[in-house]
Design a protein that fits this description.
alpha+beta, disordered N terminus, 12 helices, Cathepsin D, subunit A, domain 1, 4-stranded antiparallel beta sheet, 29% strand
Amino acid sequence: MDTLATAAASREVQSAVLGGALALFVHVVKGAFAQKPRSSSRLRCSLRPGRLLAAFGACSLGGLCVHATKNAVQHGPFSVKLRRQLIPLHSEDGVVHHKSAYYGQITVGAPTPQQFEVVFDTGSGHLVLPSIMCRAETCLNHRRYRRRASLVAKDIDVDGSLVMPNQARDQITVSYGTGEITGIFVQDKVCLGPPAPKEPAPPSPAAGSVSGASLLQLDRARVETAKTQLQEDEDDDDGKPKTEHGCVDLRLVSATDMTDDPFSSFQFDGVLGLGLPSLSQTSEFNFLEAASVGGSWSSLVPDAERMFGVFLAKSAQEDSEITFGGWENDHILNGHQLAFCDVQDSEEGYWQLEVYGIKADGQKLDFCDDGCRAVVDTGSSLVGVPSALGDQLVDLLRFPASPEGGCYGPGPRLEIDLGNFTVILDPADIARLEFIEGQAETNETQAALPEGSEVGNTSSDNMLLSAGASQSSAEPDAEAPSCVPMLMHIDLPEPLHPKTLILGEPVLQRYYTVFDARAPKVGFAAARHALEAEVP
């Protein structure tokens, strides 16, 4: 009923009905003047109630169609294309190891949006961008956020209170693996995707045509005009506050210092945390929570601003993508549907699920008999397992390489039972040649695992996860190379469960994954990729 009332009150429907009524009125009046008195029966024919109702119905339906189309365009799911960066970690015996990072565009500020590339990270809870005040070499090599360039930005403390000029302000230091950032708090307009095209600005006066004082007045006039336009844009057609499609008012961390390691190797500028509210300083810093209050990318499903779907490509023939406000059915393999699993201990802030069992090459392991957890992490390149499980999995999942030296043929599977869904990983998903990739330790930086934070002091929002390609005690045969799974060894501190797995890139590539913060829960369905056959 609310949706119908909203549609009926829209200008599209009202204009259509009014236009139809006016057209009918003109037609009837014109007919009345054109007919002779003895032809009154023909005039009565034009006033038949059935025809009037049909005409009004057609007009109203047209208005509803226009309204629905406008609503779908302005309030439907919002997708952002992602690019992949392979980050070299170290080289041993000529072998270079990499981790992946998927990042996309956002803009910050108004009326002139500032563009940034950010990683969409489910393992952290803040938007962090390098500040124009940061003079570190790492910051200078990236786009920097200029707070004064945004007319809607506010300098704030962690509780949201405004910071006056020359007033001391809160700051935060956040650890990301081997490095850290220090920053201050700002509130600003944040929009998904690249900036919308705008009309060109009028030409500036020629140099020397106006005095310095006049130029200053002109600049002030432009600022006032921009402010007025922003104020007008805040009201929708019905006079209610509106939010531009894909935008949200968000509190963020503006980094005033960033260490070279690991940030200097990143092509992207910052991190947009998509963790649950407990990973954020307050709910106003949490992107999904802020979107549920002032987001605009879905009105078709109640509170759908707190949902997003992730698709990671397997080849250059397709694009990786993150979709906010729902999910894209086109990324789901034909004949498959999403299966949702409930998040456990959501107060810890992670998208962690219950693990009911693990199988390797069809053999059920007793490792999870007393309980396990799995964190779904868009910031991880590999599947992570506790170190006590790693060697056992490598022994069970080892198999001979193909005669051509590849690991993409049939072989033992890794199965992770999540209750309502079982994650199945084939050799093509996780196996690598042991004599090349299995001999070196790989370290991977993760944006995850908070140890708590305290405003004004050094805080640790994340920690380093050490990833190792497990090795058996047996020496590999150089004449018959084996394939082994590339797995991270992770042992997570409290409050997380001691037996916690990390479901990273291999899982997110094989399965289209939907994160729903309303329940919260995570859904999985077989992903449809460009180069794979469509089989049910």
